[in-house]
């Protein structure tokens, strides 16, 4: 998987992880992949739900040492 | 337009006083479907906040201008954002301070009854979670039954009333919420009671709550009598207070009955549940007022916000008390049960003293409705 851009959303509380994810997505092209690293547990349900509503694809999602990683391919 | 901040207490008053309110819930659809702020006259619109990042113009026509509007989310942050956007669009709205997290934690103490010689019986209604706790007060002393984990609420209430907490009871080992019972007892020097059959795995000291146990509160000796009533758990115990009030724990609710499966033994305990509801309770006076440990739906609240009903009326109206056929009863309470409460196995472990999560983790475990009943 080729990551085009990484967004550090660690320590941010809802709604900021999504607000920043959306802004970052606006800077990449269709088919490219954004990596998001967050700590807010709300992101676990919100990022997939947001991605789905925008037609983006979550290629992978994992949790390591309390860090939440999302790999989102732009629609 | 200004953005107002409402506390959970403000919203609780609106629920109890049957006021109108329009709630814009900006959580995920799943979260909203699962659990929301219920009110008799509340209207709802659920739009996840992340669908409003580009603006609120599209939803403006759906938001009334002739009633109060409250924006709600999980913790607060997103509701503030959306409330500010609505405000910029010229609407006056409020957001819920602390979000559903604080709604889940809020307790409203309501007086259920005056007892002889100045005694009082209070019900602590946890609207967001449907938990009901009780405090019996009489001449300087208090007993608490099924305290939730916000121990300060109870100890401060006792202080305000000038009473000393002497006895703390749990009707059973809870699976839907974390008990504050033993912590209140440790803090105040009160005796903490738990039914021994529910306590086989607990790792702390407790006083056995056995059938027929009697304690007297205050010098006028308000009676608190224990009545073994298994079925929700094998140890479940009810209380009769002052020969007038029946605290049923999670065995009998206003519009439903207890479920026997949360400790994993539905098949074994269904017979006990039947025996308690159809034999033991039938031997009690019909004029007893039932005070359960939960409510499931807002319709179970009385006009003053209490959850209470005459036992004789429940014998007539509660579906779970009117299933004549034993096999049908068995299948009602073991088949097609509703989903189990959030994190119920972990919550049982906490209540046994086996794990000690921090406050945030406890809040997380308790999110969602209680789901202790079968309708």
From TrEMBL, chain A:
UniProt cross-references to Pfam families, sorted A to Z: TusA
Domain annotation UPF0033: ranges: 7-31
CDD domains the UniProt entry points to: SirA_YedF_YeeD
Signal peptide boundaries: none
InterPro entries (UniProt xref): TusA-like, TusA-like_sf
Entry superkingdom: Bacteria
SUPFAM superfamilies assigned to the protein according to its UniProt record, in alphabetical order: SirA-like
Family, as annotated: Belongs to the sulfur carrier protein TusA family.
UniProt name for this protein: UPF0033 protein YrkI
Taxonomic source organism: Ornithinibacillus halotolerans
Source taxonomy: Bacteria, Bacillati, Bacillota, Bacilli, Bacillales
TrEMBL record, chain B:
One GO MF term: sulfur dioxygenase activity
Residue intervals of the Rhodanese domain: 17-112
A Gene Ontology biological process term: hydrogen sulfide metabolic process
InterPro entries: Metallo-B-lactamas, Mito_Persulfide_Diox, POD-like_MBL-fold, Rhodanese-like_dom, Rhodanese-like_dom_sf, RibonucZ/Hydroxyglut_hydro
PROSITE patterns: RHODANESE_3 (PS50206)
Protein name: Rhodanese domain-containing protein
Originating species: Ornithinibacillus halotolerans
Lineage: Bacteria, Bacillati, Bacillota, Bacilli, Bacillales
């Amino acid at each position: 998987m080729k990551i085009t851009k990484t967004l550090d959303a660690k320590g941010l509380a809802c709604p900021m992880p999504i607000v920043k994810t959306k802004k970052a997505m606006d800077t990449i092209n269709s088919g490219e992949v954004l990596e998001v690293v967050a700590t807010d547990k709300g992101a676990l349900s919100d990022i997939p739900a947001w991605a789905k509503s925008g037609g983006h694809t979550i290629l992978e999602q994992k949790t390591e040492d309390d860090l939440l990683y999302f790999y989102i391919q732009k629609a | 337009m200004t953005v107002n901040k409402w506390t959970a207490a403000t919203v609780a008053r609106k629920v109890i006083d049957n006021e109108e309110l329009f709630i814009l819930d900006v959580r995920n659809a799943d979260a909203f479907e699962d659990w929301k702020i219920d009110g008799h006259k509340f209207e709802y619109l659920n739009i996840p906040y992340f669908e409003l990042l580009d603006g609120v113009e599209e939803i403006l026509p759906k938001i009334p201008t002739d009633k109060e509007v409250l924006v709600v989310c999980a913790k607060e942050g997103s509701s503030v954002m959306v409330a500010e956007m609505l405000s910029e669009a010229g609407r006056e709205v409020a957001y819920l301070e602390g979000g559903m997290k604080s709604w889940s934690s809020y307790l409203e103490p309501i007086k259920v009854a005056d007892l002889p010689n100045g005694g009082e019986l209070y019900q602590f209604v946890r609207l967001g979670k449907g938990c009901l706790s009780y405090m019996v007060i009489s001449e300087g002393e208090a007993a608490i039954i099924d305290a939730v984990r916000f121990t300060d609420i109870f100890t401060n209430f006792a202080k305000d009333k000038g009473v000393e907490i002497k006895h703390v009871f749990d009707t059973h080992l809870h699976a839907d919420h974390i008990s504050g019972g033993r912590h209140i007892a440790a803090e105040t020097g009160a005796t903490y009671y738990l039914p021994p059959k529910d306590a086989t795995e607990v790792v702390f000291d407790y006083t056995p709550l056995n059938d027929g146990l009697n304690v007297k509160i205050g010098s006028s000796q308000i009676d608190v009598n224990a009545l073994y009533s298994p079925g929700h758990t094998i140890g479940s115990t009810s209380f009769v207070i002052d020969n007038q009030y029946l605290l049923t724990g999670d065995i009998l609710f206003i519009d439903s009955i207890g479920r026997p499966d949360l400790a994993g033994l539905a098949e074994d305990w269904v017979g006990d549940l039947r025996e308690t509801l159809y034999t033991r309770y039938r031997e009690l006076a019909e004029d007893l007022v039932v005070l359960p440990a939960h409510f499931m739906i807002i319709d179970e609240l009385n006009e003053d916000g209490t959850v209470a009903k005459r036992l004789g009326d429940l014998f007539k109206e509660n579906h779970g008390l009117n299933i004549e056929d034993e096999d049908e009863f068995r299948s009602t309470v073991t088949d097609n049960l509703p989903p189990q409460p959030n994190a119920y196995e972990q919550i049982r472990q906490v209540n046994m003293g086996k794990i000690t999560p921090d406050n945030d983790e406890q809040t997380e475990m308790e999110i969602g409705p209680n789901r202790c009943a079968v309708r």
